[in-house]
Amino acid sequence: MRILVLSDTHITNPGETIFEMLEEEITKSDYCFHAGDFTIYPVYNMLIEKIKTYAVAGNMDDEQIANKLPKKVIVKLAGFTFALIHGRGTSSKIEQYVTNQFQKDFDKIDIFIFGHSHQPVNHQLKDKIYFNPGSIGDTITTSKKSYGTIEIEDNRLKRRIQYIG
Asked: pTM (2 decimals)?
């Protein structure tokens, strides 16, 4: 199983799209997790037409997305439990925020997927994985656009940050 992981697309013009550069990844993937900040509803709609998507609303999403998507979600796939949230606060405190938001279910969660900071994160702390794909739409606060992939094979998670440009 392969999961495409996106966050912080920040597209404000429906004609502007990042999906051409992700077409191959979308084709190869079974699912997509999007950790918020699509910005406008047509971008969310375009993504769900292309791939089975689990998504949450971010702080920069329009009202239509904010009303449609949850702020956080827990997804079980292939024997793993994923916690998906956008995030809040500074890069140095975002992982603590994410952990606190899932405190009730913390022991059940294998991997926390989040966004907001635009800074890629891919590390393990004890038996929990923290994964932020960075931003596919921003080159102002980060030097390169990025997204993530997670492959599940033989009951193991293989995760990567992929850079564009």
From this structure: 0.95
CB 82 within 8 A of CB 75: yes
Which residues span the domain enclosing 46? 2-164
The CATH number for 96's domain is 3.60.21.10
Per the CB < 8 A criterion, the answer to whether 45 and 17 are in contact is no
* d(C-alpha 43, C-alpha 19), whole Å: 9
Q: What is the pLDDT along the chain (165 residues), one digit of tens a residue?
A: 999 999 999 887 766 667 777 889 999 999 999 999 998 888 899 899 999 999 999 999 999 999 999 999 999 999 999 999 999 988 889 999 999 999 999 999 999 999 999 999 999 998 999 999 999 887 677 778 999 999 999 999 999 999 987
Contacts of 66 (CB under 8 A, 6+ apart): 57
User: Is the CB of residue 94 less than 8 Å from the CB of residue 117?
Assistant: yes
List, in sequence order, the alpha helices (H) in the chain.
19-28, 41-50, 63-68, 94-101
Number of structural domains in the chain: 1
